[in-house]
Amino acid sequence: MQRISFKKISLLLAAFLLSFSLMAQENGKASKAQKKADKKQEMLKKKALKADKKAREKHMKIQTKEVRKRMKKNKKKSAKGTYRRD
Fold it and tell me: What is the pTM of this model?
């Protein structure tokens, strides 16, 4: 009688271990997909920042020397927090 219960317990234990291992593999696939999506989103952010930087540089090249000086001066003032528009 004890052997039958031991077999049942060992069978149930094996079934639980098998189910947990299968669940862990499914979560691994999900995390890979999530990592891939995060990596792609990070890459898109970097591309957007790079494009913005290029656009700013192009805008600066178009401006005359006096305008660039004025923009630089205003940028420094705004960084200090003393430049305010009313």
Answer: 0.47
